[in-house]
Structure formats: structure tokens, C-alpha cells
Amino acid sequence: MTDSPIEVRGLNHFFGTGEARKQAIFDINLSIARGSLTILMGPSGSGKTTLLTLIGALREIQDGSVVLLDHELHGAPEADLVALRRRLGFIFQAHNLHESLTATQNVLMGLEVHGKGNAAKQRAASHHMLDLLGLADRREYVPANLSGGQKQRVAVARALVSNPEIVLADEPTAALDKASGHTVVEMLKSLGKTRGTTTVMVTHDPRILQMADRIITLEDGRIVTDKSQ
Ligand SMILES: Nc1ncnc2c1ncn2[C@@H]1O[C@H](COP(=O)(O)OP(=O)(O)OP(=O)(O)O)[C@@H](O)[C@H]1O
Question: Gene Ontology cellular component (predicted)?
């Protein structure tokens, strides 16, 4: 197993074509240690989400290299990217829960794509994850009957239930109160220690900065500070 599940070399990224072509990411170089929790910070428009989606195989690599779990993403066939994405857990701001499904069913979706375990085991794992996130009494609620923070925690449960090797999160605590935000980040840290799960998280949340192993700041598409703590 690799010590650095995310290796970025000479990464550039552009949006638009012709006159409108604009560079959003400039010569990023990064090695992220297995089991660590890294925070990406920076002003609006500095490229945080673009970098996260490039690392997560959600965007085509145009120039440079991203090696994810020992696989080069640049030029990789779509089938390989799909297989790699299944090894990741994504937590995005727009949590994309299915409105017609209960909390448990939404979390189950995080397992069904993997086809791991039988139905009873999958259900038990989903309940366990919801319980850990303080949603034991909300298992059978549909999203319309959950608060913003509860929905966000369901999305966290869905991302983590499959035991992903890497978790990529965009503002996962933005909709959460202090205690829930703390619980989510503590969970990610503890998964890092016990299972070697690697987390990269975009956040503006000052409450969780001190919980990170490393804080990287972007400005105008470039890394301007990179601090381990
Ligand atoms: N789909 C797109 N088409 C064109 N330009 C884009 C697109 N997505 C992002 N950009 C531009 O790329 C730059 C980086 O955007 P990005 O969303 O990565 O920043 P960010 O740091 O995540 O910002 P925020 O904190 O506001 O989410 C910005 O100038 C943005 O306008």
C-alpha cells in the first residue's frame, strides 16, 4: 500500500476556449500522506474546488500528473476512472440526497454501488454509520423532514459507509453546528489513524483548522502556504 495515495506533479488547469480561456490552476505539486487530514483554504475563486475535483478523478486532467492510489489519471480510460472513484468517498456542499429515499436508504446507496455484503449487513452498516453521526432517531426520515445539518450528516454517512481509502470533502461542516462539525472531523481523523483513510477537505471553518495535520492555502490557483502541524 502506498504511503502517498495522492501525488500531484506540475498540474495546470484551464477553463474556456479561445479568448475566454482562463487558467484556474498553476503548477501544483503535492504529496499527501496516507492517513492524514489535509485542509485546503483560500479565498473564493482561488481554485480549491477545481483542485479537489481534479484529484477526485471528476475532471479531465489537461496538463500535468495526478497519481491517485498508484494510478495515473492523466489519459486514463473512463472505465479506470470509474473504478478509482468507487474507492473514494465524496462529501460535497450540495449533498445530493435522494428526496424520495429515507436517511437509511440514502446511506445504503453508498454501499450498493460496491455490491459489498448482503442486504442485512449493508443495512446494519448504514444504521451504524447514522448512529455514529447522531442520527439514530432519524433513520427513516426523508430529507424534506431533516434539517440542513442533518442532511449534511447523512451525506457524510453515505460517503464513509463504504470505508473509502480517500475522502474528498468540500465544506463538509458549513451547514453544521460546532458540536456536529467537530464530530464529523473527529470521525475522519480517527478513520485516518485506524484505517489509514486519507482526507482532503476544503473549508473556511476556523473551528476545525487546529484539527488538521496539514493546511494548504491557495491563491489565484497557486499554493501560497503549506504548513504541517
Ligand atoms: N466550470 C467553470 N467554467 C469556467 N470557469 C470556472 C469553472 N469552474 C471554476 N471556474 C473558475 O476557476 C477559478 C477557480 O474556481 P474554484 O471554484 O475552483 O474556486 P474555489 O476556491 O473553490 O472558490 P469558492 O470558495 O468560491 O468555492 C475561478 O476563477 C472560477 O471562476
Answer: membrane protein complex; plasma membrane
**Quick check: is 140 in a domain?**
yes
- Kindly state if the Cβ of 47 falls inside 6 Å of ligand 1: yes
pLDDT digits (tens, 9 = 90+) for 99-110: 999 999 999 988
> Measured from the CA of 49, which atom of ligand 1 is nearest?
22
Range scoring the smallest mean pLDDT among 107-121, 129-143, 203-217:
107-121
What crossing angle do the helices spanning 119-132 and 148-160 adopt, rounded to 10°? 130
Q: In whole numbers, what is the pLDDT of the chain averaged over residues?
A: 93
CA distance 30 to 222: 11
Residue 47 alpha carbon to ligand 1 centre in Å: 6
Query: What pTM does this model have?
Result: 0.92
User: For a substitution probing ligand 1, which of 25, 48, 216, 219 has the most ligand atoms within 8 Å of its CB?
Assistant: 48
Residue 139 within any structural domain of the chain: yes
Could you list the residue range(s) of the whole structural domain that residue 117 is in? Answer: 97-161
Residue 142 lies in a domain: yes
The CA 215 to ligand 1 mean position distance, Å, reads: 20
Structural domain count, the chain: 1
Residue 168 within any structural domain of the chain = no
State if residue 44 touches ligand 1 by the CB under 6 angstroms criterion: yes
Q: Is the pLDDT of residue 5 over 90?
A: yes
Residues 217, 224: Cα–Cα separation, whole Å: 6
Q: What's the complex ipTM?
A: 0.96
CA 43 to chain centre: 19
